[in-house]
Amino acid sequence: MKQTSRRIFIKLVKGYQYLISPILGNNCRYYPTCSAYMIEAIERFGIIRGTWMGLKRLSRCHPFHEGGIDLVPEKKSKHSNQCGCGTKSTEDSDR
After folding, report:
1. Contact 40, 72 (CB under 8 A)
2. Which ranges does the record mark as transmembrane (predicted)?
3. Local confidence band at 95 (pLDDT 50, 70, 90 cut-offs)
4. pLDDT score of 60
5. Is residue 73 reached through a cis peptide bond, with omega within 30 degrees of 0 on the bond before it?
6. How confident is the model at residue 41 (pLDDT cuts 50, 70, 90)?
7. Across the strands, what pairs with 30?
8. Binning pLDDT at 50, 70 and 90, where does residue 39 land?
9. Packing angle between helix 34-45 and helix 2-15, nearest 10 degrees?
């Protein structure tokens, strides 16, 4: 069910990219574009958090903001090596 809902949200954003965005023109002040950012955020963090991150990004995309490069942050590991328990996270096991 989660994957289906996620795909529906992503298809809605892609529909905007292909149907509405070409009419409005290239106005995004960021790289990647706000719609690409929202798709990546939904894929990485899920519908609720990803959509929230995308909407926050959209609220900053206006002529009075300089824009620039704004990538979707990496998803943090649920286990921190700083806890001192000695358990390795999946990121550390690759080293």
Report:
1. yes
2. none
3. very low
4. 86
5. no
6. very high
7. 68
8. very high
9. 180
